[in-house]
Prior knowledge:
The protein is an alpha/beta fold. The chain is 45% helix and 9% strand.
Amino acid sequence: MTISYIRPDKHFEGVFEQLKYINRYVEQHDLEIDYEYIDHKSQNRPLLQREELVSFLRSKRSDILIIYDVWTLSSHIDDLVQMFSCLLKNDMTLHIVKPSVVINQQSDIMLVLGLIDQLRQKLQDENKKSIGRPKGSRSSSKFDKYQEDILRFLRDNRSVSEMARLLNVSRSSLKDYIESRELKEVATATMTPHCPKEAISKVIGAIECPQIRSTTGE
């Protein structure tokens, strides 16, 4: 069975965006979804408070699960580790659309660690960005209405300058929008074949090691 799992989270992409990218990914990779699970109950609750989802996933064996990004499973690092462990123990194959990677029991442990570290970095960035805007909200943008056009332009390898000219918008503002929404990664993921070496290398290469802060007076 092939299952798509969509979970809205106020800090990240909504249901519509997740569905849009998952459907494009499925079409590109000749997959067919048998069951679509849209989880409106979990929100950003810890795993212990998501009994319905936990029961559902524990009942699955050797199936395919498609998600938009790792935070869809959980935006809590410890819960994400437990989710990965449970899914792989049950011989599930997990397709993650945004980074365009597939993980299963044979996957390199560094890939799994890289995905977990991606979430850590994303949460860290979100905490920084949330300063100065209402807590729990994701800022909207005037470019949101152009997102489909921007993704199409990116897949056509158009430059930011050319896109700005076609949309009649500021180049610098458009560039900031593309980077903040990580649209290049999204556009690439929907076109990339299953688990390419480049995508795996990118995930592993983005792992950040801890940094020691120098203290004054040293």
